[in-house]
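Session log. Operator J.P. requested a structure for one protein chain; no other inputs attached. Running the standard single-chain path with token output.
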Amino acid sequence: MQPRERVLAMINGAWMCQAIAAACELELFDHLADGQETVGALASATRADAGCVYRLLRALTTLDLCEERGDGAFALSADGALLCREADNGLHHWARLSGRRLWTNWGALADCVRAGSSARKRQAGAENFTAFNKDPTGAAVFNRAMADLTRPVALAAAQKLNWSGFKCVVDVGGGPGELVATLLERHVHLRGVVFDLDHAVAPAQERMRRGGLAERCEIVAGSFFESVPPGDAYLLKSVMHNWDDASALDILKTCRRSIAADGVVFLFERLVPEHYSSSATDRDVARSDLNMLVGCDGRERTETQFRLLLEKAGFALQRTQLLAASMSALVATRRAADPGHL
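Structure written below.
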């Protein structure tokens, strides 16, 4: 591919997100999975215009998400099956969040770069997630999307990290509880706590009921800027990257006040390399970093930056381990009190 063609493909690539998000919103992938394969049946099921459904389906075939058969009907591909609402390891809800809520933020990227603050902060005057407490529809999509992204990381964490020495794992900012649920399902000696805002309580409770874990996991609502439940292992997945350094430090200090004396903090985050390459992994990190810029006033960080944050909060970074989906675990232990830092 020539340079101009390659750059043009990058610019025009936005249509893929919208085509996938629209198909998810219309539940086209689910209807295909249920055997409704003709354009007429799909248009009826989605209450959409048949001609436009046909055009969208043909576009999806170019992405290998479905296949147009010789009889004019369509069949779901293995990739397309990942976009069904209840697919194992699926991405349906992340696609919907990306096509609506996040799409608006990205449109303001240039303004965010000029102002040095997120679209949400400039438009809504707030940078936290409390708005979801009054937006059940938006909260439902957000929490399901977070579960979509958490699942492979949770499985890798359950398999690759040593949990034998812990009794109670507290998922700080745990959302719908996918991380804790996965750990409890695979390590029967553990008990858990999911701690997040009110909007996450119901989906977390449902996840525990579905996994038969309700008696081993407590769901607690609150703000991690004020206090967190006690435990000997704190899990913070994709929490630090939502916040600027001052706020991230406040969260870690809150954790230090409550963690057991021999407690361990596990940060699950993407690590920014010292120098970016054009690899798929580095592009994913760069994408997430800009997504935090437009949405949260947060950022992705290097290992060194995490080490310094942890030290200021009273923790010592012991090691990092690559898990899955560009995510690493940063494992830190609680240090003795140091008045100069705390």
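Operator note: The radius of gyration is 22 Å.
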